[in-house]
Amino acid sequence: MLTVKILGSGCANCKKLEAVARAAAAGAGLEAEFVKVTDMKAIMAFDLLATPGLVINEKLVSSGRIPTQAEVRQWLTVSPQTT
Amino acid sequence: MSFVLQLLNGGAGNLAAYLAAHVLLCLLPAFFIAGAMAALIPKASITRWLGRTTPRHVSYPAAAAAGSLLAVCSCTIVPLFAGIYRKGAGIGPAMTFLFFAPAGNIMALAYTGSILGADFAIARFLLCLLFGIGIGLLMALLFWRDDASHDAQTDALFAGKASIGATAIGVLLSLVALLIAGTLKLWPLTATVTVVDLPLPWAEAWQATLFQWVPFDAAKGEEGVSVQGSLLIALLVLIGLTAYKGMENIVEGPNRWTWIALGLAATTLLVAALRFTPHAGGLEIAFTGRVFAIGLALWAVSRYARRLNPENWQGWLWESWRFVKQIFPLLVVGVFAVGVIRQLIQPEWIQALAGRNSLLANTVGVAFGVFMYFPTLVEVPVARMFLDLGMHRGPLLAYLMADPELSLQSILMIAAVIGRPKTFAYVGWVAIFSVTAGLLYGAWVDGVRLGWLALGMAAFIAVLAGGLAWLHRRQHNAIQPS
Fold first, then answer.
1. Is residue B301 very low, low, confident or very high in pLDDT (cuts 50, 70, 90)?
2. Which of these, B1, B29, B149, B255, is most buried using a 10 Å CB contact count?
3. Which CATH number applies to A2-82: 3.40.30.10, 2.70.70.10, 3.90.76.10, 3.30.70.20?
């Protein structure tokens, strides 16, 4: 079971990122729990300079941009083995 | 009932006139520039100057640069502000960044320049830069104790190094050239190169219909919609529709609609640079120097953009489109509301309150800025309304300095990151600095010589510096227990 966190205050990019991440998880046939983190203090606990941030199993994989579905799918499939 | 209709008509007329006249040549390139900055400038190329060990004369200008180059929307402003404060150079540069970002970014400056005049944009930029750094230094001195307690934190966030690629610089510079070619009102751009007369007999009747639909009163600073304006509004609607189909999923790759939307955007810029004159039996179209300058700039943009790798240019288009989606609807609503409100305000009120460059007038300008909240960029058409109604340019600048920096939203956000006492201190300083900026600029507009202004500024800085030196001595004594 994967935990995917979307870091961001709810701006357009965060919604887009969530959509991309959900589509990637569905495309890879993975089950994942999606958590939206909007609290600034919780966001700043991760090292990032700009939202949106994508966190998979407590590890920040991207920030400040929207990755493509293919990228997210790769991160999703790699992370279970590394953690 | 007819009063309500008059109000709505005022709003619609204001909106149509803005869309047709002001927005295009300035805002369209500005959206693309903002997108390019967000997508093509690696954040680390500037933030590496914001680390804990960076000396002051580097970190403060770097914070201002970050404000104007990296931060166009709150998605970047809030995390970067919190990051600079907690993990970077401390409260001073964080405050400089926060103060400068809303006024010093390219969208705000381009929009201010095209609606209120270039001298106003330059004054806004320079005074915000100077006072932003001033406020940062003041905050750092006042709250030195908190900065000292940050030292346990690591610097890793700001350690990354990166530089901007040559192609990205090419794209940015040619976009800036496009913006300048579109907005500058200088000779080679305004000259008429050649004239084409189209036999369109309906043009004059259409113009008459437009003026009937959107009646305007030039004395109150209102504007009508021209034939060209109606064509531009139609093009804008088309861009909106095609962009929605072409840009929404641009990150996964472009489609047919993407190219249509981009083609329409380029066409719109070229059409906006033409000069249409309807006359009996036809429509005269003048090709100005501007048309050729814009054509050249567009060619340069496409030449550089084609050399970007797909990830970069798709990211660029997405960021530009996102800014359009985020800012443009608010701007449309705001401009409409300004048109409605303008019908309700008597010019005499404004002239009595802020018609002269006095301390009271500047304070009123700042107070209005603090208590009113306008979404991004809407403060500019609001300012235009006040200018048309007879507000002096000095208090107007004071208002424009205070409004974007101090909205209720931004005060809450700052308080969440740095706590209430510091937030109140910041708000106080912004108010004082804004009033001073308004007084100085107003005096300049009234024709006071630069020497006297410099003297006034020097006196203001001397008073501040004296107070700070006294504070600093006290702090110094506090750390050395005797």
1. very high
2. B29
3. 3.40.30.10
Classified as helix, coil or strand, A3 is strand
For chain A, the farthest-separated pair of C-alpha atoms sits apart, in whole angstroms, at: 33
Q: Exposed, middle or buried: residue B208 (CB in 10 Å: 0-12, 13-18, 19+)?
A: exposed
Q: Are B89 and B48 in contact (CB under 8 A)?
A: no
ipTM surpassing 0.85, yes or no?
Answer: no
Average pLDDT, chain B: 83
Identity of the residue in B47, B252, B315 whose CB atom sits nearest the CB atom of A65: B315
Q: What DSSP line would sit under B195-212, residue for residue?
A: EEEE--THHHHHHHHHHH
Residue from A17, A38, A49 to probe the interface with B (highest B Cβ count within 10 Å): A49
Mean pLDDT value across residues B398-426? 82
Which of the following is catalytic: A4, A6, A7, A14? A14
The pair phi, psi for residue B281, each rounded to 5°, is 85, 0
Task: Indicate the domain borders of chain B.
Answer: 14-39+166-333, 42-163+345-448
Q: Which pLDDT score is estimated for B404?
A: 80
Percent of chain B scored above 70 by pLDDT?
A: 91
Report yes or no: B168 and B41 within 8 Å, Cβ to Cβ: yes
Q: Please, which pLDDT band fits residue B152 given cuts at 50, 70 and 90?
A: low
Question: Cβ–Cβ of B322/A12 closer than 8 Å?
Answer: yes
The mean per-residue pLDDT over the stretch B334-346 comes to 85
pLDDT in tens, B438-449: 998 998 888 878
**Long-range contacts of the stretch A28-33 (C-beta < 8 A, 24+):** A28/A73, A28/A76, A28/A77, A30/A2, A30/A76, A30/A77, A31/A1, A31/A2, A32/A1, A32/A2, A32/A3, A32/A4, A32/A76, A33/A1, A33/A2, A33/A3, A33/A4
Residue located via tokens 């990755």: A67
pTM of the model: 0.83
Residue B155: closest CA among B62, B96, B83: B83
Domain boundaries, chain A: 2-82
Mean pLDDT on A19-48: 85
- Asked about A49 being catalytic, the answer comes back as no
**Calpha distance B371→B368 (Å, rounded):** 5
Q: pLDDT band for position B222 (50/70/90)?
A: low
Q: Phi and psi of B396, rounded to 5°?
A: -65, -40
Longest dimension (CA), chain B: 93
